[in-house]
Amino acid sequence: MAGTCKRAVFVGPKQIRFDELPIPEPGPRQALVKVKACALCTWEQRVYTGEEHFYPLAGGHEVSGELVKLGRQVYTDTQIGDRVMASPLTRCGYCESCRRGLDNICDNNRKPFRETDVPGPAGLAEYILLEDYQLYKANNDAPFEEICLAEPLACVLRSVRKAGVKRTDNVVVVGAGIMGLFHLMLAKQIGARVIISEPNPERTAFAQEMGADEVIDPTQEMFAGQVKASTNGRGADVVFCAASTAQAVEQAVEAVAKGGRVHIYASIHPRGDKISIDPNTFHSKEIVLTGTMSQDKEDVLQTVRMISQGLVDLKPFISLILPFEKLEEGLQAALRSDTYRVVVTM
Predict the structure, then answer these.
(1) 156-291 CATH, one of 3.30.70.980, 3.40.50.720, 1.20.120.140, 3.40.50.300
(2) Does the N terminus or the C terminus of the chain have fewer Cβ atoms within 10 A?
(3) Domain ranges of the chain
């Protein structure tokens, strides 16, 4: 396909370069997608601020668009012009992790980054080149701004599945950012009772609007005491740590019920922080400390279908939509505590 397209590259803290590149041609097992929307994840936000030093980076991995071209060996029911979700995560299919059903943590997940002129998923661009397995068909009536949120929602779906949330469970979600609220939404769909732990009053109020059964402020009283008071002294069946602090994990272990699960969803920052927990707690209470990373193919398929079938309403979580050329303004807005997801459109 003749012509050129723009791509955004993070080249340093609060430094973004826009490259003009030839529109790529898909190989035999590839698909070319015209990007319509890309949401700004916390990963891109941390690279933008310099909290994570990964330069240069062609960021953008929460992507939706329109299929424009297919390689000759791609076999799919997706038609040219269809709305699609692009899942740029690498799943080689051959490494031991992929063969064990852990394609979300493929051993070769960074290898394709090293084979491009600029590392990264490269969804912050006017076109994105995908491997055939990275393409997911969406309903052509679904908004692009919501389709692109299938990626973070799929991560949360995996989290909720692995934590084994059951109907009537007492679930505590630590942190009422967008990922914490996605946990709230999916746990409520199962039939759990959900308590949100969040010190920000605006986010607390929004969590209540989104269906939280109760909210607590972890800065006002002992976290474990508040959780036990809200669960008839028993503690939580599941605690999701959707806040990026090691202290949240330590507090969650204190607040979980016998036989309960503490699930680390958010990556801990600064990286390398340690937690201090009495190991006898695991022996005497039979609790499980676990976590998840990204999402597998089934998670992505399910969330694209959920969005396509109108089983979830993601509009309340989109705080701002800006054109691609205002990417830096979007990143600055995404860093504010009063925003959930900022989406740039091409």
Answers:
(1) 3.40.50.720
(2) N
(3) 4-149+314-345, 156-291
Rg of the chain (C-alpha set): 20
> What whole-number distance in Å separates Cα of residue 28 and Cα of residue 35?
20
Longest C-alpha distance within the chain, in Å? 66
- Retrieve residue 112's tokens: 């394709």
CA 101 remoteness from chain centre: 20
Superfamily of domain 4-149+314-345: Medium-chain alcohol dehydrogenases, catalytic domain (3.90.180.10)
Q: For each of the chain's 346 residues, which pLDDT tens digit applies?
A: 679 999 999 999 999 999 999 999 999 999 999 999 999 999 999 999 999 888 999 999 999 999 999 999 999 999 999 999 999 999 999 999 999 999 999 999 877 666 678 999 999 999 999 999 999 999 999 999 999 999 999 999 999 999 999 999 999 999 999 999 999 999 999 999 999 999 999 999 999 999 999 999 999 989 999 999 999 999 999 999 999 899 999 999 999 999 999 999 998 878 888 999 999 999 999 999 999 999 999 999 999 999 999 999 999 999 999 999 999 999 999 999 899 999 999 9
